[in-house]
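User: For documentation purposes, I need each entry recorded in a consistent format: the amino acid sequence on its own, followed directly by the corresponding structure tokens. There are two entries in this batch. Please keep commentary to a minimum and don't merge the entries.

Assistant: Recorded as requested. Entry 1:
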Amino acid sequence: MLKKGSKLNSILTGSCPRCQSESMYEEANPLNLPKVLKMNDHCSHCGLKYMIEPSFFYGAMYVSYGLNVAIGIAAFLFCFFILKTQVTFTFITIIATLVVSMPFVLRWSRNIYINMFVSYDKDAAGN
């Protein structure tokens, strides 16, 4: 499922989309909030420049919005229909879920966005 060369591997691990040999981020832990979005300038293995153009990752905001909507709907469905909680508690749970998942969503949205434009290259990976 997460074999090297798949988009899912690059998205979930935050590895370079071209070679998938190293992380795009300076800090591997997304819970280190001051450094959650600090990225390396380029991949030291294949040389891919992550900031393809100025303000490239602004487009990741749209991906982030979609991910947050999906997480919010999932939290609502789980609380309201499965746990049968009241509406007030359900919305508090949605907000708490979105706050807790924020660092992960920030990285996943960037990972998804760059993977929309850059494909895996087995020659760059050295296979």
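Entry 2:
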Amino acid sequence: MFSRLREDIANIRERDPAARNTWEVLTCYPGLHAIILYRWGHWCWHNGLKWFGRFISHIGRALTGIEIHPGAIIGRRVFIDHGMGVVIGETAEIGDDCTIYQGVTLGGTSLSKGAKRHPTLERGVIISAGAKVLGGFTVGEGAKVGSNAVVVKAVPAGATAVGIPARIIQKDVGSMRDETAARMFASYGLTPNGDDPLSKALHGLIDNAATQEHQILKIIAALKAAGIGCETLPGLEKFDPDQLNKLVE
């Protein structure tokens, strides 16, 4: 037990720049306290003391603001940062080295007892503040879920889910820069290229329209040079791609 505690404290000190020393982490980090109480409750849950396991979970929620069902499965070095309002359901499974921020719900959408109702997070997943991951699907290894996203379907390994309902941004497999970034801890799941896919699509359409307008202007100029008149529509405003790109940023 104490070796796991030392491992958890070292993990928090490595990931959180605000963690100054071991004593501060041990006494002032509710995420660590919630994990310790969860382990006690989880032991009780699987050793015929289900009521006592739930009661420990209840005490943990009152003390930390983090509710973890004792039936959930949580791996090693899981970091619950800040933690207030985190809810982790009975059949949820959280792999090693995952990070969960405040306000996250790992919830179920089925009422069937005994069924897999809550999500599975594979190794190294980051669930950012306020996100809701709802259902018995898997969030793949190294995936990220953006703040306030509502995820209702599986997220592939290494991908990012953003929006309501969440849209999936696939990682560029051929990019060495992204491969390096994937191995680094990203606070709140933020990455330099983690743009909303809808925003990326709109930017692409705007850039394509700007290219077409430039090509049309060249064609008109060539026609005029050949002595062929080309009527322009009155009152037509000049297309400004930069202004449109700013609107969708």
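Summary note for entry 2:
The first helix runs from residue 2 to 15.
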